């Protein structure tokens, strides 16, 4: 097929070179954005008197027909075209004749692909945000139901102090809330229109770039034509945000994998999100959690690859920039799939509350509160720390929890202990006395939950 840019050339492009250069295999993904951009461009050209109203209507009708035929499957986007822009323009000329040749007036494939990628990414940022909101709603539901579900909190993967399941889920709520904030920031920075920048230096046609930007839902036109065709910062930011989302998902998955193990038994993953072993009939494997954890590296790789590709590119457009698309498309599909699957897994997971509580008790997570009890009875903290350390050692040797000990056993180590020690170190007391902002106490958590409820409601608009 003759190329739309072939006038300068006397030899046909080598087929290996053509295939290496072509982008249709992946940029077909934004066919809709390409046609939406073209229709806005045509409307602007007619407004400025560069096209007649008759030409405008004929071109718009032709593009709309192509769009409908593509979406119905009647018109396949095949590899005979170099890129999605060539596909649209060639089919338009076939359908409406010479009027179709005027579609490209006042623009270049450089600003056209910059527009297409920006429109596509803008849509995907909003879709990613919507998926995160669904995940936050699932997290919020777990929090509401589990302000009194006691479990051990960990440092160094060692049981540390008692918290609640609501409090633990709240940490991830904060992470994914920040992820949404990053996406909002990216949207605000990227929502400016490159169309009209031409190849790099604008055009002599009297384009109304503000009008084109308005038609396409942008805040306005980009203010430097060289930057407009060469900027990929928004993709770096989006990949960085997606890498952070995946890091958060991976941390969460790691905990679910641990909690699902025979040694912990904190959760039971729904059958729909688990698989068995081909040889060991007792196995129920957390495959979805493991795959999400594994795919994190894939998204990290896309970010690193694009940063590396862009680091040596001089202004303005260079063909290297074509390498942004496959990386970004794959990362977007990966992240959206992972968030959706993880949300479904979390929504159906069963938390083994008694096991969590028992783990907190036998993990001596109330040891700090036992030391605080002694301090409140006049014992210096360093001495209290040593006394409780000996208590813990005694419990380990006798396979008991701190609250299983008799008062005589307590007093054998320190005569300061009285009968009120049991109330002081009960799991409920240990959690609910922690009432500072952000702590796991029930009252503190209920305040945070109301804050989250308002946050989720505010985002409805």
Element layout with pairings:
Elements: H1 15-21, H2 24-27, H3 31-47, H4 53-72, H5 84-96, H6 109-145, E1 150-155, E2 158-164, H7 165-190, H8 209-215, H9 225-230, H10 233-260, E3 267-268, H11 287-310, H12 324-348, E4 350-351, H13 353-362, H14 367-376, H15 381-398, H16 407-413, H17 421-424, H18 427-432, H19 442-458
Antiparallel strand pairs: 1-2, 3-4
Helix pairs in contact: 3-4, 3-6, 3-8, 4-5, 6-7, 6-12, 6-19, 7-10, 10-11, 10-12, 11-12, 14-15
Observed structural traits:
single chain; about 450 residues; mainly alpha; two-stranded antiparallel ribbon; 19 helices; about 60% helix; about 5% strand; elongated
Describe this structure in words.
With 461 residues, this protein is mainly alpha-helical. Helix content is 62%, strand content 4%. It has 19 helices and 4 strands. It has helices at residues 15-21, 24-27, 31-47, 53-72, 84-96, 109-145, 165-190, 209-215, 225-230, 233-260, 287-310, 324-348, 353-362, 367-376, 381-398, 407-413, 421-424, 427-432, 442-458, and strands at residues 150-155, 158-164, 267-268, 350-351. The chain has a two-stranded antiparallel sheet with strand order 1-2. A two-stranded antiparallel sheet has the order 3-4. Helix 14 (367-376) packs across helix 15. The chain is elongated, with a radius of gyration of 31 Å.
């Amino acid at each position: 097929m003759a190329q739309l840019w072939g006038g300068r050339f006397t030899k046909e492009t080598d087929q290996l070179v053509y295939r290496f250069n072509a982008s249709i295999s992946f940029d077909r993904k934004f066919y809709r954005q390409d046609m939406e951009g073209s229709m806005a461009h045509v409307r602007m050209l007619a407004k400025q008197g560069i096209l007649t109203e008759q030409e405008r209507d004929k071109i718009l009708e032709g593009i709309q027909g192509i769009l409908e035929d593509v979406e119905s499957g009647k018109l396949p986007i095949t590899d005979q075209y170099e890129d999605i822009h060539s596909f649209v323009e060639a089919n338009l000329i076939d359908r409406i004749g010479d009027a179709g040749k005027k579609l490209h007036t006042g623009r270049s494939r450089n600003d056209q692909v910059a527009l297409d990628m920006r429109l596509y990414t803008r849509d995907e940022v909003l879709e990613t945000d919507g998926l995160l909101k669904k995940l936050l709603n699932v997290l919020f539901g777990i929090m509401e139901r589990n302000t009194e579900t006691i479990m051990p909190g960990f440092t160094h993967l060692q049981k540390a102090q008692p918290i609640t399941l609501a409090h633990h889920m709240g940490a991830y709520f904060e992470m994914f809330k920040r992820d949404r904030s990053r996406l909002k920031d990216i949207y605000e920075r990227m929502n400016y229109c490159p169309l009209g920048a031409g190849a790099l230096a604008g055009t002599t046609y009297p384009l109304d770039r503000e009008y084109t930007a308005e038609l396409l839902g942008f805040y306005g036109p980009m203010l430097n034509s060289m930057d407009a065709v060469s900027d990929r910062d928004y993709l770096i930011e989006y990949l960085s945000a997606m890498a952070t989302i995946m890091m958060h998902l991976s941390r969460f998955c790691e905990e679910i994998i641990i909690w699902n193990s025979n040694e912990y038994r904190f959760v039971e993953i729904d059958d729909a999100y688990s698989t068995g072993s081909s040889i060991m009939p007792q196995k129920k494997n957390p495959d979805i959690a493991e795959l999400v954890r594994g795919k994190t590296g894939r998204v990290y790789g896309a970010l690193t690859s694009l940063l590396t590709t862009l680091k040596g590119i001089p202004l303005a457009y260079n063909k290297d920039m074509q390498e942004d698309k496959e990386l970004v498309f794959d990362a977007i599909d990966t992240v959206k799939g992972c968030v959706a699957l993880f949300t479904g897994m979390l929504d159906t997971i069963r938390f083994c509350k008694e096991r969590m509580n028992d783990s907190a008790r036998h993990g001596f997570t109330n040891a700090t509160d036992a030391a605080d009890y002694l301090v409140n009875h006049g014992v210096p903290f360093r001495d209290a720390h040593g006394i409780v350390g000996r208590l813990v050692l005694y419990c380990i040797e006798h396979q008991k929890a701190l609250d299983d000990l008799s008062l005589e056993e307590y007093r054998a180590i320190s005569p300061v202990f009285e009968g009120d020690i049991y109330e002081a170190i009960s799991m409920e007391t240990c959690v609910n006395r922690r009432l500072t902002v952000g702590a796991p106490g029930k009252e503190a958590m209920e305040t945070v939950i109301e804050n989250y409820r308002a946050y989720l409601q505010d985002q409805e608009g």
